[in-house]
Write a structure and sequence with these properties.
By secondary structure, this protein is an all-alpha fold. Helices cover 75% and strands 0% of the residues. It has a single domain, classed as Orthogonal Bundle (TerB-like), CATH 1.10.3680.10. The chain has eight helices and no strands. InterPro entries: DjlA_N (IPR007791), TerB-like (IPR029024).
Length: 151
């Protein structure tokens, strides 16, 4: 069963038979990518979880409870996929360059939220940027911006 099929079934079950829209799929895919970044070092710290919830609330205009539920659903999707490339594929081909850069910037923000950029996180961020189709200059720009904004 494909990841997209599992995602659709996950949402159909949660929304009592209402199929997932492309916007819902994109929202969950972005959230799952960010959860994946938070988890890559083996655990999600309280700082990462708090930051993740705040980022999703801000990005999608949700309250903190709704964003917290999105984190839980995204965690399930991340667990099912286990692969950043599969999650990037869920974003679809309509994601423009500026949006892909914003997603990478958010991923850097999550990775830096606990004050430590682990080797696993650094490698994943590079891999995510490449999976998003970004060039080395965009990857370096995202890294530099995150290091300037780090706590």
């Amino acid at each position: 069963m494909s990841l997209l099929t599992r995602l659709t079934r996950l949402f159909a079950a949660r929304r009592e038979g209402v199929p997932a829209s492309p916007q819902v799929t994109e929202r969950l895919a972005v959230a799952a990518l960010l959860v994946h970044v938070a988890r890559v070092d083996g655990r999600v710290s309280e700082a990462e979880r708090t930051r993740l919830t705040a980022i999703l609330a801000r990005r999608f205009g949700a309250d903190l409870d709704e964003a917290g539920r999105l984190v839980e659903e995204a965690g399930e999707l991340d667990h099912q996929s286990g692969d950043v490339d599969a999650l990037v594929d869920l974003l679809g081909h309509g994601t423009d360059d500026a949006e892909r850069r914003r997603i990478l910037a958010l991923a850097h923000e999550i990775a830096a939220s606990d004050g430590i950029l682990h080797e696993f996180e650094d490698g994943l961020l590079w891999r995510l940027g490449r999976a998003l189709g970004l060039d080395e200059a965009a990857l370096a720009q995202a890294r530099d911006a995150a290091s300037r904004a780090a706590p």
